[in-house]
Specification:
Chain B: Pfam families: BPD_transp_2. Chain B: Its main location: membrane. Chain B: Keywords: Cell membrane, Membrane, Transmembrane, Transmembrane helix. The structure holds two protein chains of two kinds. Chain A is of the alpha/beta class. In chain A, 36% of the residues lie in helices and 25% in strands. In chain A, the strands form five sheets. Chain A has a six-stranded mixed beta sheet, with helices on both faces. In chain A, strand 4 and strand 5 form a beta hairpin. In chain A, helix 10 crosses helix 19, helix 14 crosses helix 15 and helix 14 runs parallel beside helix 16. Chain A is globular and about 85 Å long. By secondary structure, chain B is mainly alpha-helical. The radius of gyration of chain B is 20 Å and the shape is globular. In chain B, helix 2 packs parallel to helix 13, helix 5 runs parallel beside helix 7 and helix 6 packs antiparallel against helix 11. Chain B has a domain of 233 residues. The longest helix of chain B is centred in the first third of the chain and has 28 residues. Chain B starts with a helix and ends in a 6-residue tail after the last helix. Classes of the chains: A alpha/beta, B mainly alpha. At the A-B interface, helix 12, helix 13, helix 14 and strand 18 of A face helix 8, helix 9 and helix 10 of B.
Chain lengths: 534, 346
């Protein structure tokens, strides 16, 4: 049934964004009827690879890519998503691209409507031709039947359960006559278990009809269930290509995470657990869209550098944002044993918490304001620093702000033309240092840092991480660092919690095995371990 | 060289270059038509001082994040009430002027607070809502002027009910600031008191902007998400900005009236917000950024344009109210231009 001819062949694909190499000589080959799993952590390069396949404008506006794409043995240049579609490449999106007010049929047939074939209609200009709804319904029905979906095709999409929407997306893709390659980008992320099972069944069925499927996911058990072959990427590098039968969940987990050699300052292990608890979370819930935290329990000890890792969308980002009161949260939070009033950023700052946001440009900085004001403002507003008091009114103290800013610029080595430069003009790394400087100006006992090295270059990365270690050692600040980069967490943290589906999957020491990390990240750890015990 | 010129134009702003060029060419025409430049300059100074505080009212609005305060008529109405009360109390001179301001401020604070609460509920479309809030308030007060219990013959119609449409301030506080320590040099008259008052108001606003609350307000307007993370109450400081803007609007109309010599009721305040908006935009402000210097530059350029355009236009074409038409084209054109720049990126 499976032909040996490959439908899609991507060879030696390389891509640079502004001098940073994000993909390096990637090869991907898929036969008709094959389900091919593409694995990798966040930032491994999966999305970039798919963007190249679809000819997304983000690729071409940043200088294109190197390498070749062959479809059915012929070399193709894909310059736009429209062209990709014409060539028979389809995509099931992670976020649904459906029009709620339209019926299922209309969504499936959007922009590919069938036209009535009577005489008058033939005379009309294209955009005014009558559409043949009956025929469209029939074809939509056929596509839905292929997927074993019993839902009526004339129902409006609005209000349908998420699982159905996913299937409508798929139906739309398989309804296209020429479809050859179908990409599923984490299709099960938003589905319940039974919905996911249905989806996997449908995928197998689609594959049997001769369509090649690229399956992007984090869930290793799903890979084992449906995939024929597996390609693993890590940090933009091609790691391996394996047949499913030659591997197992543990090996895949290890290959995905991999041990990375980092020359970052390592520090001596501390006897952390005998310290008092600095932050205690019980039944902690945060409603941060896309990063929800659900009934999470966690203790963080005084004086430690605590890492929070996990895949994107699992809720790791939500924890710090919830503690700082930036997103609606509920549950119990104790800081040094005393309860913290939730949903109140001012209160969190008063309790000597400081936060360096993951959204540097959105939340972290006043982009068009000077470096010195960015550093001073939070302390000024919350601790009445940098103010001259004239009883009736207060004025900012220009001199104090300047002195402090110069001091911080020197301490953190912020590269700038002076304290009056606006922060928009700084590089990512220096902007991050301004954020850290502001947090330090609050004299925090507990510092929450989210994604401290996102979007900054390798040299600045090391500086930022070294700074955090220094603060921890010299000032005894408890640091809670949230990061997508496991290697970075493992290089500076005393303990690392891995978050999966809004809960703590487990807490590991930095030197725990790659397999354990990989399994925890994909949420399989507890399932597999409990099986072993039995 | 070309690049340098480009950068320079960008920094100064294309609209301002056009306005300045237009103003200069009008001045040349004025000289050609033998008009008194000193007289024109005096008029420009008077009108700058007259409108300056109203334009200044735009600054806190822009900085606190509600955008251009098209709801300025709200503040103007508060100021008008203050002005009427001082006449009703039969005050004359500086006491009358001061009382008018002191009466209008508490009213403006209450109104500004309500206005701020309203704008906090419609984040993202403040300017549209503000425009209509202004219109509605003016219309509502048109009824209000009919039924408010003012008794003074100067304010109320002697026969029938309601207040007069135009109330003369002669013998009350007509030109009280304009004439204070005014300096005459030949044909040129400098309205010292008026300009000093404007500078004082600007100074007060500047001091407020350097205070803790002012800095918080600017942060809220600049980046609400940042402000929240910094422990600031976004809605509170937006309301603070609205109140400040409304109070300045109230004071602004009293200054305007004393210079104009009349208090105008009913439909008069309807479009007053628009010329203030146009002036600050000409000064170089945007929907997100404004400073005290924008107030001075903008008011001077905008009023200068109108002052010079009127006699020049009259000399060129004797027909009709060409100056008024110019004013409308320029002010609305500038507003239109500025609004197309909203969210134009970084």
């Amino acid at each position: 049934m499976k032909s040996q001819e490959s439908v899609l062949k991507m060879s030696n694909i390389s891509k640079e964004y502004y001098g940073t190499r994000v993909l390096n000589n990637i090869n991907l080959e898929i036969r008709a009827g094959e389900i091919h799993a593409l694995l990798g952590e966040n930032g491994a390069g999966k999305s970039t690879l798919m963007n190249i396949l679809f000819g997304m404008s983000v690729i071409h506006s940043t200088g294109g890519f190197d390498g070749e794409i062959e479809l059915d043995g012929e070399k193709v240049d894909i310059n736009s998503p429209l062209q990709a579609m014409d060539l028979g490449i389809g995509m099931v999106h992670q976020e649904f691209m459906l029009i709620p007010g339209y019926t299922i049929t209309e969504n499936i047939k959007l922009n590919r409507e069938l036209i009535k074939k009577d005489f008058i209609n033939n005379l009309m200009p294209t955009s005014l031709k009558q559409i043949d709804l009956d025929e469209m319904n029939k074809e939509a029905r056929k596509a839905l039947d292929t997927l074993d979906i019993g839902i009526e095709e004339w129902i409006k999409v609005a209000g349908l359960p998420v699982g159905y929407m996913q299937f409508i997306e798929i139906a739309r893709e398989i309804d296209k006559q020429n479809i050859k390659v179908l990409v599923f980008d984490e299709p099960t992320a938003v589905l319940t278990e039974s919905e996911a099972d249905n989806l996997l069944k449908a995928m197998k069925k689609i594959a049997r009809s001769g369509i090649a499927i690229i399956f992007i996911t984090h869930r290793l058990d799903e890979v084992m269930e449906v995939a024929d072959n597996i390609t693993i990427l890590r940090d933009g590098q091609f790691i391996t290509r394996k047949s499913k039968d030659d591997t197992n969940v543990f090996e895949m987990a290890e290959l995905m995470v991999g041990r990375q050699i980092e020359s970052l300052a390592k520090h001596e292990a501390k006897d952390i657990e005998n310290q008092p608890v600095a932050v205690s979370l019980r039944k902690f819930n945060v409603a941060m869209p896309g990063e929800e935290v659900r009934d999470l329990n966690l203790d963080i000890y005084k004086g430690e550098i605590f890492g929070i890792g996990g895949l994107a969308g699992q809720g790791k980002i939500g924890i710090a944002n919830g503690i700082m009161g930036l997103y609606p949260s509920r549950g119990n939070v104790l800081i040094d044993g005393q309860p913290l009033a939730l949903n109140n950023p001012k209160e969190s700052i008063k309790r000597n918490l400081a936060f360096v946001s993951e959204d540097r440009r959105g939340v972290g900085l006043l982009l068009d304001t000077s470096i010195e004001m960015n550093i001073a403002i939070t302390a000024m507003q919350n601790k009445n620093k940098f103010l001259r008091d004239y009883k009736l009114f207060s004025q900012k103290s220009h001199r104090q702000i300047r002195t402090h800013a110069l001091d911080m610029i020197k301490q953190l080595d912020i590269r700038c033309t002076g304290p009056e430069q606006i922060v928009r003009r700084l590089s990512g790394g220096n902007q991050q240092k301004v954020c850290i400087a502001r947090a330090l100006t609050l004299d925090p006992m507990i510092l929450l840092v989210s994604e401290p090295t996102r979007g900054i270059d390798i040299g600045a990365k090391k500086l930022v991480l070294d700074t955090l270690i220094k603060l921890n050692k010299e000032l005894g600040i408890t640091i809670i660092i949230t990061s997508s980069e496991l290697a970075e967490l493992r290089s500076i943290c005393h303990r690392i919690a891995i978050v999966s589906e809004g809960k703590i999957e487990g807490i590991l020491m930095p030197d725990a095995s790659d397999t354990d990390y990989g399994l925890m990240m994909s949420g399989e750890y507890n399932k597999l371990k409990s099986k072993e015990v039995i | 060289m070309k690049d340098k010129l480009h950068v320079y134009i960008k920094q100064f702003g294309l609209p301002r270059i056009i306005i300045v060029t237009f103003l200069l060419s009008l001045c040349v025409l004025a000289v050609i038509y033998n008009l008194s430049i000193a007289g024109l300059l005096s008029d420009t100074l008077v009108r700058t001082g007259m409108h300056g505080v109203l334009v200044l009212a735009m600054v806190p609005g822009i900085l606190c994040g509600i955008g251009l305060n098209f709801g300025l008529p709200l503040g103007i109405l508060c100021g008008l009430i203050g002005g009427l009360v001082s006449i009703e109390l039969d005050l004359v001179g500086f006491p009358a002027f001061t009382t008018a301001i002191l009466v209008s401020i508490p009213i403006a604070i209450v109104v500004g607070w309500g206005y701020g609460v309203l704008l906090n509920r419609v984040k993202g479309s403040e300017m549209t809502i503000a425009t209509y809030a202004g219109f509605s308030a003016v219309s509502l007060m048109s009824i209000g002027w009919m039924i408010l219990p003012f008794k003074s013959d100067e304010i109320a119609w002697i026969i029938g009910g309601g207040l007069r449409t135009t109330i003369t301030l002669t013998g009350r506080y007509d030109k009280i600031l304009n004439d204070f320590a005014a300096i005459s040099i030949g044909n040129l008259t400098i309205p010292t008191g008026l300009l000093l008052f404007l500078i004082a108001m600007n100074l007060i606003v500047w001091v407020i902007l350097q205070s803790k609350a002012g800095i918080a307000m600017k942060a809220v307007g600049d980046n609400p998400r940042f402000a929240t993370a910094a422990g600031l109450n976004v809605n509170k400081y937006r309301t603070f900005g609205s109140i400040l803007s409304t109070v300045l609007g109230a004071i602004g109309i009293i200054v305007y009236s004393q210079s104009f010599g009349f208090i105008q009721l009913y439909q008069a305040p309807m479009f007053m917000g628009f010329s203030a908006v146009a002036a600050i935009l000409i000064g170089g402000a945007t929907v997100k950024k404004a400073s005290i210097s924008h107030v001075f530059i903008g008011t001077f350029l905008f009023q200068g344009l109108l002052v010079v355009a009127l006699p020049v236009a009259n000399k060129m074409l004797t027909a009709g109210s060409l100056a008024e038409i110019t004013r409308i084209i320029v002010s609305n054109g500038i507003i239109l231009y500025a609004l197309t720049q909203v969210g134009g990126g970084e």
